[in-house]
């Protein structure tokens, strides 16, 4: 893998905004703005590297199934910060297998191969920019430009598979109004377009606008029953909301109930506690890093301490040879507990440190999006950089 210089397209901000990437700038702590979308450079990968990532991802998906069984059999929910009132529904949906859509593995790539950093299984973002980069490779490299990016096609295919399975006359796509950059809105909006292409009638709305009717169940602004809901709102938040009890009670595809996508069992996979579970089950696996729950004995001198439920590197600490080397922004995470994962080098490309985000649709590897940071923590100031397959 290499990082190369690329001539940015003329008028690229207008191009990507028209394609849906309206949140292409990030506000820095001093109030200035920095482009989040970065097309002055690109990463090149060989076909062999892509095949290796794809094979690793397929294997990890199977390993995650074993890990889910292990969490339930070993009753690790408390250790993972998952509240007891959610456990019966997690177990039930794990067995009944309501539909899931997508996820994103984050990998480090170095001389030792691809190493799993985490799996974003419930509400992964950077979906829009992954789609937009396909237009970039076509514009810059022409019809011969290649990229590992079947995300759109596989999402359409997945929604088509679900046409006969989802209850109700329409699917609701909900996001939170609390997110101000527009990322959640545009991510949910993009998923609406994919589902419409697959044949669904869709409704996009803020989760704050959902209502509850005693006999009908969850309803939209017009009082219509919300039978199928895709939520860009994490379960670890939802189970603590005022309506959590009703959401858990009215979960399913029967009349008066709501089928939620992603399913609640993904609280097991989207939790950083999945990392030590995988290491217990598959020690020394070439795609895994040693990982432990906080308080478990380990001999790691270089490690990353991560909150079980944090996002974008928040409240994480990197220790190298016993000394703190970097830390993520303090956003109040960590009360639920931490895991410790062996530190691995992300690689240094002219001072840039990339994380490779491999998308999955259902159980299938689907494509790649790369974010890079100046520091060792990939955080909310990271940049999205497109890639191209170059053999």
From TrEMBL:
One term of GO molecular function: ATP binding
One family name in Pfam for this protein: GSP_synth
Residues of the Glutathionylspermidine synthase pre-ATP-grasp-like domain: 12-389
Keywords: ATP-binding, Ligase, Magnesium, Metal-binding, Nucleotide-binding
Record Gene3D superfamilies: 3.30.1490.330
Annotated InterPro entries: GSPS_pre-ATP-grasp-like_dom, PreATP-grasp_dom_sf
Highest taxon of source: Bacteria
Full protein name: Glutathionylspermidine synthase
